[in-house]
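A note on notation is needed here, since sequence and fold are reported together in a single record. The reader may check this reading against the record printed directly beneath this paragraph.
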Amino acid sequence: MTDGPAQSAVAHPAPALRPFISHYAGFRAEGLRPETHAGLPSRHVHLIISFVEPIELLRAPDPSQRPGRFTALVGGLHDTPALVQQTDRVHLVHVFFTPLGVRAILGVPNSAIASRVIELSDLWGTRATQLVDRLANSANWNTRFAHLDEAFMRALRPHGVSAPAVWAWRELARHAGQIPMSSLAQHIGWSRAHFTDRFRTDFGLSPKTAARIFRFEHACRALKAQPRQLADVALSSGYYDQAHMTREWQALAGLSPRQWIARELPFLQDYELPLGDDDAHDAYRSNLLVVQRRL
């Protein structure tokens, strides 16, 4: 609930950046009730730049990382929740990197930031400060998105990722994680052990962990549409039963599905959940994400 109207905008990156960045989003609201929120596992690596108070990280996905405050937060792929303190004001830009974009644009391998939360300046130095200042002083979302395009195009250094591993990632996305790892390895012609090692090298997560995240995303989308149909959502998302989904939800979100529906779902923005597999997500962006605003 806010005291005034929220503003949001979502847009494509420049065409040359689309293999590396899924989409941009901007969000602004005031009069929010201070809450703690879970940063959920996702197929994306997130860059969130705050123009008001720094983002207060209460708990990182990696339990060895200490809490901290971040102006430009980079969150790597992870399979346990982060915990973030929301204040009464939010004004931010959110960049959704694909795993291919981490090395190509941010300049580090996925494995270097998996389950970590770091400041963009730790990767980009003064370029990060310059970008944040430019965005903060921009008059509107379109201008901010154009500045992001410009900065990321300058930084872009495409880095070769194993084609079989990329194919496996896309197959896992396309099937919402509901495909045996042995089938993927067999199709590629690798042993299961080599497949797992190479996938983890390229993406920072094992293929089994990636499959769990894709199933979880599928369930999140389904619960957003049908919050009362827990048993049906569990089966359609590839879980054995509702109890299995609940156990996975506790591990990945730190809450049961019912608790998540009550505490997190009301605050979830549409742009935060991908539609589904990569092809469907491209269609989603084409139809819905060419800059939208709720003013």
